[in-house]
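Whiteboard transcription, Tuesday session. T.W. wrote the C-alpha cells on the left side:
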C-alpha cells in the first residue's frame, strides 16, 4: 500500500474554557494515494477533529501524523502553514468564502499565499471555475451565489494550488439534492483523475460513493 498519510496513536484533548474535552483517544489510520475515504459517525465523536489534524490545521496532543514522508508534529508553525498551502485543499460545510470578493478573487486569494504571479492566478482561477461549471459567474460577488454554487467555488479554491489531498468536512451538508449531486459528481471526477480525497459526511448515500468508509466513534476509528 502506498500510504501518503499515516496517523498513529493520535490523541486530542481540547482545553476549553470549562472542562477539557477529549475528542480523539488513540486513532490509527492510513490514507492511500489516490483513494477516496469517507469518515462517518455520530455527531461530536471526533470526525472534524481528525480531518483538521490530517490537514495540519491543529496539532495532536499525543501520537504522530506522517504526511508525504514528513512528521507534522515536528514542523514549526511556518512549516505547517506551508504544508497547508501546498499539500492540502480544504472544503468546509459553510463554504467560508470571502463574501465581498468576486468568485474569481476568492480562488485567486488561495494562490497568493503560494506566491503565484498575478497573471497566472487569474488564468488558473478561470480554468478551475470553468471545470466546476462556473465559467459564467467569475465576476459575480460570492454573496450573490446559491449554496451549491458557493460550494463549487470552495472546491475550485481548494484545488488552486494543486494539492495532493482534498479534505472535505460535510461539503454537502447544506445543499439541496440537485446541488449535492453536482458537488459529488465533481468529487467523483477528481477521484478518477487520481486526486486523494478524504470526506466527512453524515449521509449514507454520500458515503456509499466512497471506496472506503471509516467510522469515527467515541474518538476512535474502526475500519
Ligand atoms: N475547538 C474546540 N474546543 C473545545 N472542544 C472542541 C473543539 N472542537 C471540538 N470540540 C469537542 O470535541 C468533540 C469532537 O468534536 P468534532 O467537531 O470533532 O465532532 P464531529 O464528529 O465532527 O461532530 P459533527 O458531526 O457534529 O460535526 C466534541 O465533544 C466537541 O465538543
Ligand atoms: Mg464535524
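and on the right, the sequence the group agreed on:
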Amino acid at each position: 500500500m502506498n500510504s501518503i498519510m499515516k496517523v498513529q496513536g493520535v490523541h486530542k484533548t481540547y482545553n476549553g474554557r470549562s472542562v477539557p474535552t477529549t475528542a480523539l483517544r488513540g486513532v490509527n489510520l492510513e490514507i492511500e494515494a489516490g483513494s477516496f475515504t469517507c469518515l462517518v459517525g455520530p455527531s461530536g465523536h471526533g470526525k472534524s477533529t481528525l480531518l483538521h489534524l490530517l490537514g495540519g490545521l491543529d496539532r495532536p496532543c499525543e501520537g504522530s501524523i506522517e504526511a508525504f514522508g514528513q512528521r507534522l508534529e515536528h514542523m514549526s508553525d511556518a512549516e505547517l502553514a506551508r504544508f497547508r498551502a501546498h499539500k492540502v485543499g480544504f472544503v468546509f460545510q459553510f463554504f467560508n468564502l470571502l463574501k465581498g470578493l468576486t468568485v474569481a478573487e476568492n480562488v485567486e486569494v488561495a494562490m497568493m499565499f503560494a506566491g503565484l504571479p498575478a497573471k497566472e492566478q487569474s488564468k488558473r482561477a478561470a480554468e478551475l471555475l470553468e471545470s466546476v461549471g462556473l465559467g459564467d459567474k467569475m465576476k459575480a460577488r460570492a454573496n450573490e451565489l446559491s449554496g451549491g454554487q458557493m460550494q463549487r467555488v470552495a472546491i475550485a479554491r481548494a484545488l488552486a494550488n494543486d494539492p495532493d489531498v482534498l479534505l472535505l468536512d460535510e461539503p454537502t451538508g447544506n445543499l439541496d439534492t440537485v446541488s449535492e449531486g453536482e458537488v459529488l459528481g465533481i468529487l467523483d471526477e477528481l477521484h478518477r483523475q487520481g486526486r486523494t480525497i478524504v470526506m466527512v459526511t453524515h449521509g449514507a448515500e454520500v458515503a456509499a460513493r466512497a471506496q472506503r468508509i471509516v467510522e469515527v466513534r467515541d474518538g476512535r476509528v474502526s475500519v
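Someone added at the bottom: The chain has one domain: 3-222.
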